[in-house]
Amino acid sequence: MSKGRKSRADLNSATSSKPSIEPNSPQKDLSTSQATASGRSQSEFPTPVEAMANLSMQSTESKQDKNVRSQTEPQKKRRYGVYSVVPDSAVLKPISRPDDQGTIGKAIEIYTNHFPVSIDDAIINQYDMEIVMVREGRKLCPAKKDERWEVLQKLSKHEKNFPIVWYDQGKHLYTKELLTDFTTARRVKLTINNEEKIFEFKVLNLVRQEKIGNIFDFIREKTAIRPRDPIRIIETLFKQSVHNEYVCIRNKYYDRCQKLTDLGDGRGLASGFHQALCLTRGGPTINVNLAFTCFYQPLNFVEFACRYLRQDIRQGVNKAELEGMEELFWNLP
Predict the structure, then answer these.
(1) By three-state DSSP, how is residue 309 classified?
(2) CB burial class (10 A; 0-12, 13-18, 19+) of residue 150?
(3) Where are the alpha helices (DSSP H) in the chain?
(4) Fewest beta carbons less than 10 Å away: which of 37, 96, 229, 252?
(5) Taking the CA atoms of the chain, what radius of gyration do you get in angstroms?
């Protein structure tokens, strides 16, 4: 059959495919409801029920029931202004104060962590000294830090007319006296680990003299040079006075007898205080603050490594783990 002619069946199909327009038809109601709902927010994607219903071309269910959904307003992102806890300076009013520093106000007491210090205006002598251990055959070797401290303590108790000195745990000795009588070395015997050892104490030379009065000159603005050396000498005296009760790390002090808080990795947390000498207009003061630090627990290396690595190394480690452990423990402070 040619393309220009149509069969009777095609004509009947074309005629029946045209929708009948009636005044009360559901199609009109649908268009009306859609026009009414167009002002509200609707989803761009159909629901699963609508998608399945649209697949059926023979459904007699009203399309109005299919398309109508519960519709809600979308949440709007509101932007709030940034507010400061400090009020605007234009709103603040200056505090009314009495003229010429009067006495209208009420006096109050304020507690601070600064405590006044009374220091004599003296001259402190700084000496270089040496403490060595004498081994068999009179061989000399440097003494350890704790050994040097014990030697000085024994000298101060048993040496006749031994002056008051304080020691920086290095090679410097401070005193108000002139150590002119210490021209020869002094020998001291100590028992360490049930073994008697001989140590030799010797004053080398007078290095410098520091005036404590420089602190007061700086406070009174007579000089602009900050007296760092006199401050360091006084702080060294503070450290020595509490050496037997506290562990001193720079300007921080920790009680030797306190129980450490176990951190579970071979270390323990210790509480202490930070102490420093401050120069104020009212005079020198001691400033004290809380301080915390970690100490290693009294464990052998194997127990410490197991806790620190959180792994029982007694069960064995491979070569890669061993190399990592060596690098890790080498860099431990």
Answers:
(1) helix
(2) middle
(3) 8-16, 26-37, 48-54, 63-67, 145-158, 213-219, 228-241, 301-309, 319-330
(4) 96
(5) 45
Rounded-to-integer distance, Cα 317 and Cα 322, Å: 6
What are 157-178's pLDDT values in tens digits? Answer: 888 888 889 998 888 999 999 9
Beta bridge partners of 195: 192
Question: Can you say whether the dihedral through the CA atoms of 240, 241, 245, 248 is positive or negative?
Answer: negative
Long-range contacts of range 130-136, CB-CB < 8 Å, 24 or more positions apart?
A: 130/171, 130/200, 130/201, 130/202, 130/204, 131/199, 131/200, 131/201, 131/202, 132/199, 132/200, 133/197, 133/198, 133/199, 133/200, 134/187, 134/198, 134/199, 134/200
Of 138, 234, 230, 222, whose CA–CA distance to 185 is shortest?
Answer: 138
Per-domain boundaries in the chain: 125-211, 301-330
Pairing between β-strand 283-296 and β-strand 246-249 as defined by DSSP bridges: unpaired
Q: How far apart are CA 204 and CA 31, in angstroms?
A: 110
pTM: 0.58
Query: Which tokens go with 301?
Result: 């290396």
DSSP code, position 169: S
101: phi > 0 → left, psi -120 to 50 → alpha, else beta; which?
left
Find out whether 118 and 282 touch, Cβ atoms under 8 Å. no
Whole-angstrom CA distances from 31 to 38, 60, 105, 164 are 10, 18, 81, 108
> Would strands 114-116 and 283-296 be described as parallel, antiparallel, or unpaired?
antiparallel
Report pLDDT digits (tens) over 79-126.
444 444 445 555 555 555 555 566 666 777 777 788 888 888 899 999
